[in-house]
Amino acid sequence: MRNQLLFALAFIPTIAAAxxxxxxxxxxxxxxxxxxxxxxxxxxxxxFTVNFAHTGTASKAGMGHNWVLARTADVNDLAxxxxxxxxxxxxxxxxxxxxxxxxxxxxxxxxxxxxxxxxILKDGESYSFYCSFAFHxxxxxxxxxxxx
Length: 148
Fold this sequence. Notes:
By secondary structure, this protein is α/β, with parallel strands linked by helices. It is built from 4 helices and 8 strands.
């Protein structure tokens, strides 16, 4: 019995590590920059969570930030459509299927998160994350990759 328990306990760190690989912490402050430029998403994840924090002090209306996932080819058009949608809609065009996942806009000191299924990402396709606040997307971008 003791050997079975030791055998079972040996897998706990592996399970915990696998779970922690299925989420990432991303932040941005009062400047227009994310703390990371790339995110790797393991194909083994059933769900993936992005925990997003605005580490600055500026208000949501003054310098809000969010995290949006889309195909790289769609980001510029989505950013333009987001400006038209306005702040009340988080600068996200409503019901646009090109937006794969997103957090709401947050202001200084606020946190939010989004969970999505990595199965929405296709091998061989290029994906990006960006901030949809008006005109932030040109500086606030990064890449998302599916990895084995």
